[in-house]
């Protein structure tokens, strides 16, 4: 399964709204950081982001490449989405 489809699968049913503070869950670094993307959100404060971090089944950070990549630890998997667009739909997350 390609990295783009992996994020599609992991993000199914999750909403990006409200995830703008770049923090990690406790002291844990995220499992995976997806970066270099065009992430369309449903937030009027920040309609587009470049990167997101996931720990378990939760988004822990959404924002710019640099700020989200800083949350990664030595065991964090980093996946370059090469400019692919990610957009939330009403019942699923779509990837172009």
Walk me through what this model shows.
The chain has 96 residues and is α/β, with parallel strands linked by helices. The protein has a single domain (3-95), classed as Urease, subunit C, domain 1. It contains two helices and eight strands. The protein has helices spanning 3-11, 65-69; strands at 32-35, 38-40, 48-49, 51-55, 58-63, 77-80, 85-88, 93-95. The strands form two sheets. It has a four-stranded mixed sheet with strand order 5-4-1-6. The protein has a four-stranded mixed sheet with strand order 3-2-7-8, covered by helices on one side. It starts with a helix and ends with a strand. Mean pLDDT is 75; it is low at 12-21.
The backbone outline, from C-alpha atoms, is globular
Q: Indicate the CATH topology.
A: Urease, subunit C, domain 1
Measured between the Cα atoms of the first and last residue, the distance is 15 Å
CATH class: Mainly Beta
Output the structural class: alpha/beta
Radius of gyration over all CA atoms, rounded: 12 Å
Strand portion: 25-35%
Provide the CATH superfamily: Urease, subunit C, domain 1
**Gross CATH architecture:** Roll
How are the strands of the largest sheet arranged?
5-4-1-6
SSE topology:
Blueprint: H1 3-11, E1 32-35, E2 38-40, E3 48-49, E4 51-55, E5 58-63, H2 65-69, E6 77-80, E7 85-88, E8 93-95
Parallel strand pairs: 1-6, 2-7
Antiparallel strand pairs: 1-4, 2-3, 4-5, 7-8
């Amino acid at each position: 399964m390609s990295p783009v489809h992996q994020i599609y699968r992991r993000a199914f049913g999750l909403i990006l709204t409200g995830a703008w503070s770049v923090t990690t869950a406790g002291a844990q670094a995220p499992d995976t950081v997806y970066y270099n993307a065009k992430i369309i959100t449903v937030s009027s404060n920040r309609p587009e982001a470049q990167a997101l971090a996931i720990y378990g089944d939760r988004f822990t950070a959404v924002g710019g490449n640099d700020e989200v990549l800083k949350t990664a630890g030595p065991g964090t998997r980093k996946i370059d989405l090469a400019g692919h667009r990610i957009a939330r739909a009403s019942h699923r997350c779509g990837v172009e």
